[in-house]
Fold:
Amino acid sequence: MFIFGNLISAIASILKIVLNLYMWIVIISALISWVNPDPYNPIVRFLHSVTDPVLRPIRKRLGFSLGIDISPMIVILIIIFLQNFVVNSMFQFALSMR
Structure:
């Protein structure tokens, strides 16, 4: 059973790193959007291609515009929730398996 616990722990560690990385990508994308970047820059294109599929449905559901796009903040809050609930639950489950 300890092997299954180690597997769950490893998956939780990888998920934590991926969620952290994606959170920073969302933050960088939001910061870059403030300076009106060149849309043909490969870095800007990468950031938009990675973040737009997640941000677009949130923007649609909000439906109103306050002059500020708060969808990155909502995505960051969702990521923090996933880190605190899902990843920590996976770590606790893995510890109980050992």
